[in-house]
Amino acid sequence: MTRYLLDVENPNLDGYEKAGGYQGLARALSMEPALIIEEVKKSGLRGRGGAGFPTGMKWTFAAGDPKFPKYIICNADEGEPGTFKDKAILEKNPHILIEGMAVAARALKAELGYIYLRGEYPKGKDILQAALKEARGKGYLGENIMGSGMRFDIHVHLGAGAYICGEETALINSLEGKRGQPRLKPPFPVNSGLWGRPTMVNNVETLANLPFIMRAGAAQYVKIGDPGCPGNKLFPVSGHVEKPGLYELPMGTTLREIIYGQAGGIKNGKRLKAVIPGGISAPVLPPDAIDCPMDFVSVQKQGSMLGSGGVMVFDNDTCIVRVAHRALEFFERESCGKCTPCREGTSWLRAILERIETRQGREGDLQLLEDVSRNIAGNTFCPLGDGAASAVLGFLRHFREEFEEHIKNGCPFGPDDHTRTVIAR
Amino acid sequence: MENFPAFSPGALARLEEIKKKYPPGRAALMPALHVAQEDFGWLKPEALKAVAEYLELPEMTVRSTATFYSMYRHKKTGRNVIRLCTNVSCLVLGARTLKGILEGLYGLAPGNTSPDNRFSLEIADCIGACGSGPAMLVNDDLHTGLDAKKVIEVLENYK
Known about the structure:
Strand order of the largest sheet of chain A: 3-2-1-4
Structural class of chain A: alpha/beta
Helix content of chain B: 40-55%
Radius of gyration of chain A: 22 Å
Structural class of chain B: alpha+beta
Low-confidence stretches of chain A: 418-425
CATH superfamily of the largest domain in chain B: Glutaredoxin
Largest interface: A-B, 58 and 49 residues
Mean pLDDT of chain B: 94
Low-confidence stretches of chain B: none
Number of helices of chain B: 7
CATH architecture of the largest domain in chain B: 3-Layer(aba) Sandwich
Oligomer: heterodimer
Number of strands of chain A: 10
CATH topology of the largest domain in chain B: Glutaredoxin
Distance between the termini of chain A: 48 Å
């Protein structure tokens, strides 16, 4: 069993059933909810949305809260630039997600779930709706699931363009019809989430791991990938590689294997200059760091993070200042405006990077970038600000000379999109 | 069904379906705004008012939510809305060149509509097509692997 998340040959229910689909749910229905949670704990599954929190532990918190009803939310607000893994599950294997949510519902005794789908994935919505209908028709959702007496149904909630809604409390506010701004924690959603009720928010890929864990058992699951962080991981690879795309590989596969072994190496015979290992919020790494295994612990040791697993590869003709500038345009635009360090800080970081890129950089600008970043990090309501700050600090840590060169002599890179002529924003 | 003449019959039917999926009150607001936007073309003041009346919410509540999200449109758009991704993965594969082409060929600046009302351009921040960038959404259609030639070919299909 090398792939279980992306069975792209079999996107419909028939195909999914033939590949063992809904057997995990059948097993879960034969188990006491507490034992399901125990099984997930034993599997060592860690959340695939970016933070890597142990899923079984999160479930224990929600299960331990005496309040009912409880809700299951699938976080399908995949907005991290460089990431397109959840989209593939939603569009190519939607039943694995539905089964995963039903397993979670059984474990937490929830009767209603929502899939919070980002507004930019309109096709995904149609595919999900069709799959939900199929699942209801076959009794995998509804009033009496597989004859067990369990009730559970799922609705799809379409977002409307806000990166911040990937943060779980912002997502809950958005689902309640409010502005998608994060809430103060505690209370955590596991105790007081959707409409004040205990709410389990799990990422698409996390939920998609559950059918396999239930079907094959935790003992089988821990044999895959890294013992400290088991299972397969989806790695979306983009940028200057010969074969960009989505790769399902064991957790702990090295960046070198992903870039050169799987994705065919750097395009057009060029050299690797830099790689962002986990979506735009993950600090950039230099070429000498690519023997790093891609798991939550190892990437952190390199000063970055696994994040979403979105691997963004840049060749030796890439202007790092331009990349940094575009990254900060994103953070500035997506800052929700609730707290000052993020709202003001991202705007200043963008402005400083912009003037460096357009040859108006000043002496002391790099120091200023560092100061502003350090004043954001750790001082914001949610991780968006931290992501912006650590991204900037990462670019400066590994490519400081390039920034200095821009301030002194302008951009040294050539035409096309490496041109120094800035097209109006 | 009560009478809400501001909405088309089709939109009203969809709103009734939406109401069943959420508890009463504000929760149905985002899907209702999506329906209103499609029905009215954009979230003009009458659209916001109609949503407020339908969900029995203060207009200010509706406006507060509607102005937070980038995909709710608060001005009239052209017949086709282009969302061109220029985030990093698309950027390094040529997205800025494409932006320049749209500007030169159709007179499109980000946030604006072409003089012939054919296209509106929005700059997107990742549309989940990084593995086949540069990419853009035109209305609900995803187009990938764009270059100077292909972007024009694709857009010629939208009138």
